[in-house]
Amino acid sequence: MNYTPIPWDVQNKGVLGERSARHEIVAGVNRDGSRNLPKICKMPDLSERSYANAAFIVKAINCHDALLEACKLCEAVLAEHEQYDGSDDDDCGPSREHEAAEAARAAIAKAEEKK
């Protein structure tokens, strides 16, 4: 998947009350070093909710790689300890380590899902 390099940032464009005023999600670093940052997404206005949505998107994108790597590390460590607590004859079920490893695997699969 080819997406705009991170980090991303939120910028305000225009003045509150102007018809065209809005928040924009932009690339935080331009490859050529210029201040003309590539636009990624335009939010509908300058409202607090619009800014909060843009900031949430930017935080998720900027943290994605680190969170994915942390999940992979957790899954690898937990996989070494995910034995079942008991035999098939009792109701102990899977260990907490097994449950945590499965949750990490599900998160990794979702993050790496190709659309």
Structural class: alpha+beta
Question: Main beta sheet, described?
Answer: 3 strands, antiparallel
Strands across the major sheet, in which order?
A: 1-2-3
The string of secondary-structure elements, in order, is: EEEHH
Number of helices: 2
Low-confidence stretches: 84-89
Number of domains: 1
The overall strand count is 3
Helix content: 40-55%
CA-atom Rg in angstroms? 21 Å
**Average of the residue pLDDT scores:** 81
Looking at the structure, what is the overall shape?
A: elongated
Percent strand equals 5-15%
Ends distance: 9 Å
Question: What does this molecule look like?
Answer:
- With 115 residues, the protein is of the alpha+beta class.
- It has one domain.
- Helices cover 42% and strands 14% of the residues.
- It contains two helices and three strands.
- A three-stranded antiparallel beta sheet has the order 1-2-3.
- A hairpin with an 8-residue loop joins strand 1 and strand 2.
- Helix 1 packs across helix 2.
- The radius of gyration is 21 Å and the shape is elongated.
- About 5% of the residues have low confidence.
